[in-house]
């Protein structure tokens, strides 16, 4: 449900906040006060079109924001903040929980949050793509498991179909592809690459590049050890050995120095060996450079490192195998495809039977609703067209809602109904029957009561009230019988401040609600109109009870 709606700089609206509630929220007020602008702002927030002429005169941008409570949504917090800002230069900024989104992303998200219905706006019910989903939701548990099983098969069906359609052209093209792949495999195999080889070559190359500096320092270290350290330690050890019989401490020191002496001798020999290995010639260095160039060339073609190059070789070997064995591979895929298709068709037929059964039941309920809404001549029906092999995500069926508003007339798609008032009542009948299964939490009715009165108006109010038990309803109305059924009533008015007209919205208390119902019903607030308002209000309470 929508908790708060914030609108800024749209038409005569300068800056308003509306705190909405669960149940039936009714908006009333004088003509031109801004009720339609409030609904229009919701349409803008739902990703609808926006004209810069809607920006309040003298302002540079318009802004609409709402906080909506969506338990069990994909967002961590159950309260989601949605906003859209449109600047006079055409710049459009849409956000969901502070994250920038495109208008299409906003539209997709809001399509699952609000459903707007009015004289010229019936969002979801006119979208033929939703009809099959609404029928299936109505069939509920009877069809649910079958659809899950079918959709799993449909996913597999598409994967196999894609694989079958994946080909290498004619024989000449296939041979060209094989020649290329074989060349790539040969090139990689001839390189005889080894894991970590590149790192080892780079280290060798670094040493070669610094060989002169390394040789000089190794020679100096070797000379210092041999001519100074080793000889000096030898003299020290011999001196201690001459006096070790006088004190055992002399013997211990001599023993420790002998161990160091042998270690230093070993280090000197190692340095000597390393120094002798530093004699690189240009031919060896050229070989290292050539090998690194080869590896870099292969990296540019086949991967970022030797492991990726070798992995690529395995992949193209597999592709070569598939091309050479393509005929047998495709045959096995086609056999599997036929099995999946056969099972899909079987389940799709079961789904079709259930849909036809529930289409009759749903049509009968909606026709009963239409009769109560004073559309006794109207006949709602559901057309189900079934294909033999045109599979889609919902089976083999195409579902469309049809209506005939007069006896003897041919049933037509809902979108072709000319009268806005008729369309509104048809939509209301459908919504009322499907209230339990309709997943959209917020339903908005914008003056759908236009052109109706008397019994039809009262029934319309009752049905909207019933829908509000399952959904949050926001309704703009000019009828007292509908306003009297509101759980929360808001008065929309305009006032002049500093020579500018501004819209204001106030939530009414019970006394104010009665006065507003009286104003709507008779045009003036008198004792008689107040008593009539109380009667309407009491009738609404009895209906609710």
The CATH fourth-level homologous superfamily of the largest domain? P-loop containing nucleotide triphosphate hydrolases
Enter the CATH topology name of the largest domain: Rossmann fold
What's the shape? elongated
**Lateral strand order in the biggest sheet:** 2-1-4-5-6-7
Total domains? 2
Radius of gyration using CA atoms only = 42 Å
Kindly state the percentage of residues in helix: 55-70%
CATH-derived architecture of the largest domain: 3-Layer(aba) Sandwich
Strand content: 15-25%
Number of helices: 16
First-last Cα distance: 23 Å
Low-confidence stretches: none
Largest sheet, if any? Answer: 6 strands, antiparallel
The CATH class designation of the largest domain is Alpha Beta
Give the strand tally. 15
Helix and strand content put the structural class at alpha/beta
Roughly what is the average pLDDT, rounded to an integer?
85
Any overview of this molecule?
- The chain is 56% helix and 18% strand.
- With 545 residues, it is of the alpha/beta class.
- The protein folds into 2 domains: 1-124 and 440-545, 3-Layer(aba) Sandwich (Rossmann fold); 171-324, no CATH class.
- A hairpin with a 7-residue loop joins β10 (397-404) and β11 (412-413).
- The longest helix has 47 residues, at 326-372.
- It is elongated, with a radius of gyration of 42 Å.
């Amino acid at each position: 449900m929508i908790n708060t709606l914030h609108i800024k700089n749209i038409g005569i609206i300068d800056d308003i906040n509306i705190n909405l509630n669960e149940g039936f929220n009714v908006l009333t007020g004088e003509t031109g006060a801004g009720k339609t602008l409030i609904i229009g702002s919701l349409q803008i927030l739902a990703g609808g079109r926006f004209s810069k002429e809607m920006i309040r005169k003298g302002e540079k941008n318009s802004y609409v924001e709402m906080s909506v409570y969506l338990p069990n949504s994909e967002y961590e917090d159950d309260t989601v903040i949605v906003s859209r800002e449109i600047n006079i230069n055409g710049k459009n900024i849409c956000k969901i929980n502070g994250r920038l989104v495109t208008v299409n992303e906003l539209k997709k998200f809001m399509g699952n949050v609000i459903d707007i219905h009015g004289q010229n706006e019936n969002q979801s019910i006119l979208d033929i793509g939703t009809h099959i989903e609404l029928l299936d939701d109505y069939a509920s548990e009877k069809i649910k498991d079958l659809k899950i099983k079918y959709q799993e098969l449909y996913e597999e069906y598409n994967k196999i179909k894609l694989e079958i359609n994946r080909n290498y052209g004619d024989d000449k093209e296939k041979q060209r592809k094989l020649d290329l792949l074989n060349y790539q495999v040969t090139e990689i195999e001839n390189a005889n690459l080894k894991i970590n080889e590149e790192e080892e070559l780079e280290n060798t190359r670094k040493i070669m590049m610094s060989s002169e500096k390394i040789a000089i320092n190794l020679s100096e270290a070797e000379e210092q050890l041999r001519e100074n350290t080793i000889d000096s330690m030898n003299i020290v050890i011999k001196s201690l050995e001459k006096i070790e019989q006088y004190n055992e401490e002399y013997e211990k020191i001599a023993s420790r120095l002998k161990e160091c002496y042998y270690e230093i001798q070993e280090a000197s020999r190692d340095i000597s060996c390393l120094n002798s290995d530093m004699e690189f010639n240009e031919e060896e260095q050229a070989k290292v450079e050539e090998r690194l160039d080869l590896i870099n060339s292969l990296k540019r073609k086949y991967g970022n490192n030797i492991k990726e190059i070798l992995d690529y070789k395995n992949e193209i070997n597999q592709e070569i195998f598939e091309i050479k064995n393509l005929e047998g591979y495709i045959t096995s895929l086609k056999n599997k495809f036929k099995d999946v298709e056969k099972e899909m068709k079987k389940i799709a037929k079961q789904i079709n039977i259930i849909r036809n059964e529930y289409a009759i039941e749903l049509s009968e309920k909606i026709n009963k609703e239409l009769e109560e809404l004073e559309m006794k001549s109207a006949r709602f029906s559901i057309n189900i067209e079934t294909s033999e092999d045109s599979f889609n995500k919902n089976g083999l069926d195409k579902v469309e809602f049809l209506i005939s508003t007069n006896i003897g007339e041919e049933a037509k798609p809902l979108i072709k109904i000319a009268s806005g008032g008729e369309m509104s009542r048809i939509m209301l009948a459908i919504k009322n029957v499907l209230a339990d299964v309709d997943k959209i939490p917020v339903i908005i009715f914008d003056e759908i009561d236009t052109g109706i009165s008397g019994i039809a108006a009262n029934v319309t109010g009752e049905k909207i009230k019933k829908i509000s038990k399952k959904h949050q309803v926001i309704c703009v109305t000019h009828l007292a019988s509908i306003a009297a059924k509101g759980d929360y009533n808001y008065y929309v008015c305009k006032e002049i401040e500093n020579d500018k007209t501004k819209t204001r919205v106030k939530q009414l208390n019970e006394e104010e609600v009665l006065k507003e119902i009286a104003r709507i019903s008779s045009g003036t607030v008198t004792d008689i109109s107040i008593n009539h308002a109380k009667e309407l209000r009491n009738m609404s309470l009895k209906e609710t009870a």
